[in-house]
Design brief:
265 residues; alpha/beta; Rossmann fold; 6-stranded mixed beta sheet; 4-stranded antiparallel beta sheet; globular
Length: 265
């Protein structure tokens, strides 16, 4: 009988170190993201999870360690470098332009030009094509917004989050990173965003989810990466461990080696 094949690692980090003067934000942090999964990253304040995500998304350059994408070392000097490698990040402030339409927001900074000599020469935006592709992206993720020409400022909080997530899913080739996507949302809209995250994963894109909302983490995550004191404390299976044990590891009240073997992922 053949042994089960190990899951493909889409993204890895080995021994990441990041110092800010006398403060060490990352102290030899490791990280592994598997294909086709939603990986939640949790940690107490100062645990290093934000610094880790910034390194993975190109917003911060680590002092030591390496990041690998599909087993290949990559060196991000800016978020644009990460985007060129197919890594899209949705930050908590969403970075949408409220007065612009949904279609314009989806292609913000990556506008499509008319496929003609004049279009390329004078950089004429192909609004018709952008509108059609925006409708296709929103339909694929089943985001219930009727018109792509309405301004983002007219949308609810959950719908705005949907636009930001749809934009990331449209352009990501490797990884989608979501920073607190359900923060400040009500129960109904929070659940809508969780379902949207599942659709992004089912589309074939692994998702890194940073969240303080433990019920949401346990509801949606395939694995949970627990950050503590600038390192990876443990990676656990939410189906084989209770929320109280995860919080205990996160706060240092329980050691990862005291967890049952089936809880580790």
């Amino acid at each position: 009988m053949n042994a089960p094949t190990a899951p493909k690692l889409v993204m890895q980090a080995r021994g990441l170190v990041k110092r800010y003067g006398q403060v060490t934000a990352l102290d030899g942090a490791d990280f592994e993201l598997r294909a086709g999964e939603i990986l939640a990253v949790i940690g107490d304040n100062g645990a290093g999870k934000s610094s880790l995500i910034k390194a993975l998304s190109g917003a911060t350059i680590p002092d030591e360690g390496e990041i690998l994408l599909d087993g290949r070392p990559v060196h991000f000097k800016s978020p644009m470098d990460a985007r060129r490698e197919g890594i899209e990040t949705v930050y908590q402030d969403l970075a949408v332009a409220p007065a612009m339409t949904i279609a314009e927001n989806l292609f913000l900074g990556r506008e499509l030009l008319r496929d003609s000599l004049l279009g390329r020469l004078f950089r004429i935006v192909d609004k018709k094509r952008m509108l059609a592709e925006a409708e296709a992206h929103m339909k694929l993720l089943q985001i219930g917004i009727r018109s792509m020409v309405q301004a983002v400022e007219t949308l609810s909080g959950g719908q705005r989050q949907g636009v930001a997530v749809a934009r990331s899913a449209a352009f990501a080739r490797h990884v989608v990173i979501l920073d607190e996507p359900t923060a400040a949302l009500g129960v109904k809209e929070g659940n809508m965003v969780l379902e949207l995250i599942r659709r992004v994963r089912d589309k074939g894109l692994p998702v890194i989810l940073i969240s303080h909302n433990m019920p949401h983490v346990f509801e949606i995550a395939d694995r949970i990466h627990i950050a503590r004191l600038g390192r990876r404390a443990a990676v656990v299976n939410p189906k084989a461990i209770g929320m109280s044990d995860v919080v205990a590891v996160m706060t240092g009240a329980k050691r990862p080696e005291d967890l049952p073997a089936e809880a580790l992922a």
